[in-house]
Amino acid sequence: METVIKVENLARSFKTKGQVKQAVDGISFEVKKGEVFGLLGPNGAGKTTTIKMLTTLLLPTEGRAEIFGYDVHLESHEIRKLINFVYGGERGVYGRLTATEYMNYFCTLYKIPRKEQRSMIAELLELVGLTEAADKKIHTYSKGMIQRLHISRCLINSPKLLFLDEPTIGLDPVGARMLRSLIQKLQKDGITIILTTHYMQEADELCDRIAFIKDGKISLIGSAKEIKRSSGHTRMFEAIVQMEEIEKIEKEQTISIHTMEELKQLFYSITFEVKMKEMDIHQIKQILSKYGEVVHVIQKEMSLEDAYISHMKELG
């Protein structure tokens, strides 16, 4: 299968106030044609900096990256013909324009022949479900509609590779679902996609392979199944506990809490991993009962979010 992206020891540092900050620190990976490749990590991990280098908006300080065989440093002009990108949020739209006017503006920038613009705009707005809103001012759009408009804009140059940086951030569940369906449709059309997101369920659903990145370094790459399997030694549990002082259970040494959610007053749903393999449910209940009344405890299947949290904790 054709290699679309090849990254070797890519690095980028910034100098601020006399100090050097290593934003990306010698990462290497490849992306094949037609893949949705996820880049996941905490804020400040280096995801956006990596995307900026791959989209030729930022030069690497070390290493090498190729897009469709073109060097990001030396052949950026050729790369830009083949790619496009969308950043999450509402940046980059002109609220006083209609969607049709906005798209027409970008068609002109991309030098699409005038006689082709009308049909292209109609086709792209239909693809993202905005036909009925084509002549409405963009400032009246919801966040989800704006994100879909961004995607229609980035398809004007018929890219073979799309970079989507947190495309569903701030969207309601319906808007996020529509956008995920659109991403799947684009993949079926043969477009390779690089996706960053903080939503693990979204990454699990969309990505063929995923890379975990922290402190500018890639620590793990694989499919969601492979990543969850690699954390197979970790035993995950879910419990509901009635308790008054949650600070105490957070200090318990035999478990590592991933999430804690208040269901109603004094009742908490806790997801946690057990550090001692030999502990059974009865022993776990005994530990939890030190902090309150245990309603129930069950062992749960490892999710991508569980694997991610466990992996990041191991990295420290």
Explained architecture:
The structure is a single chain. Strand 12 (255-264) and strand 13 (267-274) form a beta hairpin. With 316 residues, this protein is α/β, with parallel strands linked by helices. The protein has eleven helices and 14 strands. The radius of gyration is 23 Å and the shape is globular. The chain starts with a strand and ends with a helix.
Architecture of the largest domain, CATH level 2? 3-Layer(aba) Sandwich
CATH class of the largest domain: Alpha Beta
The helix/strand class is: alpha/beta
* Biggest pleated sheet: 6 strands, mixed
Query: What is the count of DSSP helices, taking H or I runs of 4+ residues?
Result: 11
Low-confidence stretches: none
Number of strands: 14
Shape: globular
What number is the mean pLDDT?
Answer: 92
Distance between the termini: 36 Å
